[in-house]
């Protein structure tokens, strides 16, 4: 394989892996902060136990997100040096600001939160977890401001052989940011909600101790997940409508819409012939795509062939078609998983309100396995938004091919790619082992590591208690 | 002439100073962990001395990386693509280390704990060494062509001078960690840390002076400083000797301050000797990267300056506060959180 292909695989693997942990951090930090706020308000020990238990799972996940994030910060320069030179004037700024505003905040206050239970007043200690939650979500905002420039370049001018920033506020108010960030934010809520619901469901099924503990956790999580799942769909709808305007090729690829149509039908299931740009077999709903695009049953949606012709006019000869099958299926898996989650939360909430949830073994089992759904949606969503931008790394300005480091050889890439894959694989095993262990044990469970208290009888041990 | 390019060069220097002083001690603590912690609880105490801090310390590096990207994109592109495998090694080390801190106490199995303790060691040792290798190469100059691309490959970085630099940062950071442990522990652990400072101190001192002396012969950067290098490098040497004196006389607080000053002034010396260059080309002086040909546009520098002037003081304030909150010693009798 040539260096470019390897570099793409490496970026894809490390980014998807990083994003495996991020949404849970985004959503669970807030949920844990809410739990601790309830404890602060009511003084009820169950809320404290909830904060500690979910907080511990949060920390295991948080560590993985942090360390894999370091790679993200550096690999633009390492593997995509020509990209870095071309857009550094714009792209570097939000990245630096992310570190300065958000990373410092979350990393400093997470230390204060973990080690500060006895050293800070209750009120200040509560503030630390909120600052962690705020910092984490703030970092998502800044990285998406950077990413949005790649999707929809704004506030720049081409000068000195590169893109230079002319308007910082245009970057911040990039319309793409304000559909993408809410989408990720609510996806985080949904992920955390399903995480807590799934683990609670396991304990309902097992009829373990602490039923009250998990009942309360579940009730909080189901409302949280419902808000997340519904909002993510509403925002997603807005985002798709925006995409038709700003990146029509991406939408056409998502729908495998070869020719422009008015009104446009929406594909429910297509088997296509990608090289020949045609359907082999498809089920379609007439007019639905126009409706999704414009909230009306007519209106033209551009097809792949037409956009290709248009882009050749604008950008010169070339292939401007992203991998259609990948775009089509990642988009569908994401949307399908999202709908399944919305449905599951609605049914769960209904059963909770009727007091029948814990008796419904089928639903509880489904909820356990449904922990996978947000991960599926997060991963396919990210793959879709990045892959369906091909051949562009920065839409309309630079192709992926032009962006790669010229001096990093295929040999070096084999070493780093294998290295990352190996280390990340092993860490995933260790991470899942710990998460499963603590999740199954429940609060104060037997297989939990013994809390490290001072040996009995020593004065400090007594004081600490 | 003082301009925003110079200001950002200074700011990047400041970020590296903060990073080397702070992560310097937590690298050192990680390196000393298997040797000073005789049993599990002691090792937990050692880790907990840096538990609340290491993550925040590491952000100094991430911010330095971000600042270089934002202010000097060509520097970022040339350095990181050029030092590719070295940087990859460092990233792997930092990943493993960060996870190890979080994972090691979450299982009682002694093998599990021992595994992660050694990961903390390796994950601290490799970056502590590689930073010196990187600095040695940056001072010495590396093959950079007319298009600002590093063309030297990996093994070009492993020259004797750079390796000497690696051993220098390794020992200085280990010393920094040892002194930190003297300040943050008590009892047997403190005595052992004290003994470690006395062993590592002289080695680190010899390394630093060796690196400087060899540097005068090997690098044009140091040679530029001249026979009388000025107050900063000389003070750097003096405070290092002072650190040794305070160690010898069992004054760890002062020793820590002096060693931190050594790191500070040495970092300033290194950046000063480069200025206004950021990457020296060994092929042709005209191909070196400077704070001008590597920089962002004036507009971006202005935006970033405003952001930095507002937020750097805020960050310093709350990180300082966090050190204040955890100012007490960590002892075997402490309740070791999680």
Rg on CA atoms of chain A, Å = 24 Å
Per the CATH scheme, the topology name of chain B is: Formate dehydrogenase/DMSO reductase fold
Globular, elongated, flat, extended or rod-shaped: what is the shape of chain A? globular
By CATH, the superfamily of chain B comes out as: Formate dehydrogenase/DMSO reductase domain
Strand order in the sheet with the most strands of chain B: 1-2
Strand content of chain A: 5-15%
Q: What is the beta-strand fraction of chain B?
A: under 5%
Question: Which bin fits the share of residues in helices of chain B?
Answer: over 70%
Extended strand count of chain A: 6
Number of helices of chain B: 12
Q: Give the CATH level 1 class of chain B.
A: Mainly Alpha
Shape-level CATH architecture of chain B: Up-down Bundle
Oligomer: heterodimer
Largest interface: A-B, 86 and 76 residues
> Which structural class is indicated by helix and strand composition of chain B?
mainly alpha
Distance between the termini of chain A: 60 Å
Class based on secondary structure composition and strand pairing of chain A: mainly alpha
Polypeptide structure, described:
Chain A has 465 residues and is mainly α. Chain A folds into 2 domains: 310 residues; 64 residues, no CATH class. Chain A is built from 16 helices and 6 strands. In chain A, the strands form 3 sheets. A two-stranded antiparallel ribbon of chain A has the order 1-2. A two-stranded antiparallel ribbon of chain A has the order 3-4. A two-stranded antiparallel sheet of chain A has the order 5-6. The N and C termini of chain A lie far apart (60 Å). Chain B has 338 residues and is mostly helical. Chain B has one domain: Formate dehydrogenase/DMSO reductase fold (Up-down Bundle), CATH 1.20.1630.10. The mean pLDDT of chain B is 93. Classes of the chains: A mainly alpha (465), B mainly alpha (338).
